[in-house]
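Record PLP-dependent aminotransferase family protein, 387 aa.
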Amino acid sequence: MEFSEKILNTPSSFIRNILKVTESEDVISFAGGLPNPISFPVEALKASANKAISENGSRLFQYSGTQGYAPLREYIAAKYRRVHGLDVHADDVLITTGSQQALELIGKVLINKGDGIVIEEPGYLGAIQAFTLSEPTFYGVTLENDGLNLEELENALQQPNVKFVYTVPNFQNPTGLTYSKEKRQQIFEILSKYDVALIEDDPYGELRFQGEPLPYIGAGKLENSILLGSFSKTVTPGMRLGFIITKNKELMQHIETAKQATDLHTNIFSQYVIYDYLANNDYTEHVQKIIALYKNQADAMLNAMEEFFPAHVDYTRPDGGMFIWATMNNGTSSLDVFHKAMEQKVAFVPGDPFYTSKTGVNTMRLNYTNATPEVIREGIKRLGSIL
Ligand code: PMP
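=>
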């Protein structure tokens, strides 16, 4: 059988392959990117599932509209009006099968083969994968501690046929970094000069454990702003519920057509259940519990790094989210360290799959949300001795 170039050129999930090696019980794994399952509101979701079925009956089991369940879209719009001061309404929201699907749909709608996508370097592996299916040219822009490198951004935007810039402005995957207020403003000013869209992918924004919430870069200001959100990190990833917010009606219409072609609509059962959950539970209090849990785990990892990592290893200090990014300034390949670490039964994700243009890198992603503080300390101690 001959396969398409698009699929042959798409990186298969490096992380999934790594997770296979790291799955055994005796491995301390910082490799995953999973929310901690103790954060899932299982009982409340069970009550919501029962209630949604008894109140709506067969509607939960029927086909439904492509844009998504209207009360859920209204709930999301109202929240973004209230929390972020954005002028959004239910019609500006489309429910996707996780925000991952939003990435693929946007690629389909905006990219012709060879068109440019400006992406953070390092950037979210799943976005690289989803966009690759549209056969773009990637222009990587270095992600600095406070956001994109502005000179590289300007250069990238001058390349032919650049369609959009992809960013994760809060507690980025893989680095845990957050764009500063100043950088957000500077990026907004630069983007205002170009006919490109801006994707702000924000699945982690609510999981802030320190510092002040910051305004979005372009949402509510740029004409071609696309904001992505998700319930995966705050309620449950398994129900696969994410959303796209854009005020650009033409773009929304094309995304709807692409979604229709892909899966007709997002699981309507999940949409009814999550809507009931959101309408009848204290979501803010629930998210506060996740924040307290993750802050404790992040502190445990940072304290252990302080104690056990050698001076040539730098690492980020996230204000929220799920990841820390470490850089070995002596240039050691993180894949080499990965193999040595596996011998010591500790795992992380080597930096390579997060770049569109480099391999053999000296960086690594460490997830802290899935181990107890004691286990985190032991894992970092082992990693420190290898480094
Ligand atoms: N964007 C980013 C930056 C992510 O880290 C993830 C999850 N790893 C996603 C999108 C996809 O999330 P989901 O499809 O579960 O909403």
